[in-house]
Amino acid sequence: DTMTSLAQRGISPSVVDDQVGRLTFTQDLAAATDHLLTTGAPFGTYNCTSSGESRSWAAIAADVFAARGRDRADVTPVTTDVYYAGKRAEGVAISPRPARSTLALDKLESIPGWRADLSNDGMLAQLDDIGAVICAAGAGLAPADKRLYALRDTTATVDCLPLIASSIMSK
User: Which residues of 60-80 are buried (b: 16+ CB within 10 A; e: fewer)?
Assistant: First the structure.
């Protein structure tokens, strides 16, 4: 919803173009969790994201801008290094993000009855249908998460499992 808001307010953001992954919709994550619990899926870790093409955050933002009547070029693609340097100069703590975070869906899709058929078109359809898309938990959705990320960055405990679990549960 951040990009929709920026587009509507006439703001032209800089968005990272070298971090690539897939979208995850809240309702589909909830449906996948319910499916795993109700089908008695084997214990383990399951990835749940869109099964569409991997895309950069800048490309996704440009799609949202276009869907809201703005020019795709109003979104300026930047590298992660450039983006982080600007945020750090503003005093914002930044957690490291992987350049490629496309998750394998084969384990989730091996559970009978599940199909992770989410796509960029699904994101745009939801945007048209209800006027908003939640693709990731930002500060407005999970305010504690930002503080936990900052704590992990400041204390060099990025890999600390209890803090990672706290971050996840804050969402």
Answer: bbbbbbbbbebeeebbebbeb
